[in-house]
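Everyone, study these two lines:
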Amino acid sequence: MFFLPQNGISKVGFTATKKIGNAVKRNRAKRRLRSLFYEHSDLLKNGTYIFVAKQSIIDISHINLKKDFKKIISRSKAFKEKK
């Protein structure tokens, strides 16, 4: 994931290379990332987000993917501060 903080602007992009597999697998990987992003979007800072799907996203369970997603977001300091 790549994150560039910006005031008042939110953009998001999802990408998957051919290394992941055929079009069906690439689209499934992007759908999974998109779902997680929109599930947590209200907790995220404004900015530009680019999510790059990796090979392991095809075989990982939803629970583990959600944990990894939260870990990556927290590492990039993209979560809003709690008030």
Summary: The beta strands are 2-5, 11-15, 47-52. Residues 23-40 form the longest helix (18 residues). The chain has one domain: 2-75.
